[in-house]
Amino acid sequence: MGRLLKKLKKSKKIFRYTYYLIILAYIISLSFFIKSILTLKGIETILRIIFIIFFIVYLLLYIFSNLINLLRRKYKILIITTIISILFITVFSVSTYYINVIYNSFNNMTEENELVYTVYLISLKDTEFDNDSVIGMIDDENEIEGYDLAQKLYSKEKLVNNIEDYSDYSILLQKLYNKEIDAIFVPSNYVTLFSNEEEYQNIKEDTKILYKYSEKRDNTDLTLSSNKKFNEPLTFLLLGVDSEDNGLNTNAAFNGDTLMVVTFNPDTLKTTMVSIPRDTYVPIACRNNAYSKINSSAAYGTSCVIETIQNFFDIGIDYYVKINFKGVVELVDALGGIEVDVEAPTYNADKYDGMMCEQNSDREFGNKLVCIEPGLQTLNGEEALAYARNRHLYIGSDLDRIRHQQQVVEAIAKKGLSFSSIKDFQKILNAISNNIATNMDMNTMLSGYDVVKNMVGNVLTGEDVLSINKAYLETYSLNVYLPTTGTTTSAQGYYVDSLEDIKKALKITLGEMEEEIIKTFSFSVNETYEVYSPGKGLRKEQSTTVLPSFIGKTVTEAEEFCNKNGISFNIEYVDYGDNHYNADVAVGLIGDQSVQIGVHLSTVNELTVYVVNSKQEIVEEENESEDSEEIIDGILEDLLN
Fold it and tell me: What is the mean pLDDT of residues 281-300?
């Protein structure tokens, strides 16, 4: 051994030390490279193993062959293999860097195991809060912020105020605004949750925070995770977080205004997406299936939204993805813009000379307004967000906004795989990771590699990346009376056949139902051809029935309605002076009813109608009035004579 070392020392120092240095650098860089590619579970496993074996074998060959070259003082092969090794070291270093960037970006999308939950005690700004003030609180013991943390805040601040319990946040807010109570406990994201409701759009300016309490707890949303990978058909729920900040706090609430269900089949590369209008009137799962607008479920957490939507579409939701819509600006700009056919305004179209104009991403008007000409064009980030947010310039309001959001999502999905450089890819990845949070773990996300590879293959061959089927839920205006608040709210009912058609399309995409093959085809040059959209144009059987008005109608009509709907029916006859007497209705017709018009029928078990029995007292009063007028006229005549 000593003789070997002596012989080695006789070689030139520069080559000998280069040899040592290259071996050390190669081992270090290869170690990091191997560690990084081993994290990419499920991605080209055989190829990764081959690479690892090849580079290890090369290292051994370099060590032993160049040791012999140094001993023999043959430096030519040493120089060539050293250059090759430097190239390998560079590849290892660059690859390790980008693999870690990708890994960390995807890892950042997974919501944290623990989150900080916060409750506020708020009041109206002009309300003085003292020991005599009454506080409203949610009575649901499963509510982390509105109930559990609220009680801890009450104890921590040593409050002595009387507490009134309520079943719903909407009731709490109404009681607060009507000054029936002085303060209420709400989640820290209450502005995001409720500011899109017309009556509470200025809630941030209207209220003040009296106290707050925070506590770190396990993230209950992560328990909603599925075991499915991307090689199986999947269902995603996209939840919009309309934040005014770039980036996404994993504890940020979503306001429920953007709810999109997407089914995806990796074998067919087919997708069906459907957006649910925010005011759709459905049973809310976590509220004992009490009917309300579907966006209200967001106030009770992701699990409540998911369970409600699962019941609505009769499918399982595998994963949710929370998207900060302000991040759309960064993402679209990273993509170099997206191509969208902007719809011309259909309501108050002359307001901006036919252009579609909306606040910018910071909710600023004036010279910050974002205006777009209608038509097919490439939109930048600000324009894409403005188009996705706008609803006031379209007759369909939220329904039209949903279509526009689908256009933007589809355009982003198709443009997302067309990056031209690693730098562009990194920009896209940063935009996504900063503005998305999901319950998918890293292994699940990595399982999507083969799907992405197939999509890239489609791009290279000029084929469509995805076949996207956009469903459309047909709805109708529905005014519903809410007994809990004593108010009437404007909601959206839906058509049963439209929903059933969408359910079928979702299940066909998932492979749970067979698609019916159309064997006939008709075509007319006089008719505009439209691409089939599940649910669109189907309007039979309204989903929701509310109690109609029977005032001025016959007893038979009311009785037939009650018998048809399983409602206990009672009749009372009333005369003048009774609280339920209606002087504007003819004798024998219904003058009043015991249950308010517009109450959801599922909550009505019994109905009493009050039938006008007579008009006698009014007739007598009219006669008395006429007699009085005759007497007065007679007295006036006598005085004049």
Answer: 88
